[in-house]
């Protein structure tokens, strides 16, 4: 068993451990405490390290631009196609999908396999591509989330200058946004992560190390899957993957590459799992909504549903990436890539036929996925 597969199994086990510990950490306040640790400490520390370690070269700008292009194209498809009425999904859950489906989390689902099968060179290119993805998930996604919040809560939304002031205050109050501003200022001054004192960098490093296990455990703790939701989520994951294969095939057609590791990188990177960072923005919006009077509170997003999407996305992407790399040079030509695109889109359409408006996709009293060795229990 390769080290990449071993690492991936260990990550999936953390989700399983979180799922099995749901009854031990059943209280909402307990889960909120874990979420606060992630959003206020571990995630900002990780973002600061990632941004301040960017070694950007102007002649390589095409790489993050292409990655950002994938995010934007996927967002536009999700936002413009009439998928919400086809699936009869509540609007707040569809907004959640629009936030998550275009995002990428290559660090958890893709980088280990790139390193194992292709080495440092393609991994460095993947890290550079992730710069474009970070611009989308950290900045653009946050702007979209706040825009939807003000659209949904029009009665409570301020106008004009007050609205801009409140938006700026919400951004300042988020540790993630503060970290981004600090990193941008430091990079503009020619400073990097080594500019911090060693004692401070050690503390930030330790906070960052907590992020991955905390996020995966939190996903496991938050899973409230129903079989109908699994079917619907996976249809969108197949749709996302099919579009990703198609875009990779087009890039390979217009920018012919002969190096197989680079070809595989261009195929597997867009297949990365959905990112946790859009969830952070949805959680920030949820905290603002919690301050509203109960009778005026309208939820912009469904955070529980977001956790379910993240829980399904990671194993889906990991298995797919493993298959691509295990196939050797099968994907060295564009024909198999376009064939996979068509097959995955057909799979997504096939699931749509079984999840049409005639079926109650989201039931009022959902049945949770059974635990190992246990009976199905009502949520």
UniProtKB/TrEMBL annotation:
Q: Which UniProt keywords apply?
A: Membrane, Transmembrane, Transmembrane helix, Transport
Top-rank taxon of the source lineage equals Bacteria
Q: Does the keyword Hydrolase apply?
A: no
What transmembrane ranges does the database entry give? 6-22, 34-54, 60-77, 97-115, 121-146, 167-187, 207-225, 237-257, 263-284, 305-328, 334-354
Is Transmembrane set as a keyword in this record? yes
Q: What is this protein's record name?
A: Permease
* Organism the protein comes from: Chryseosolibacter histidini
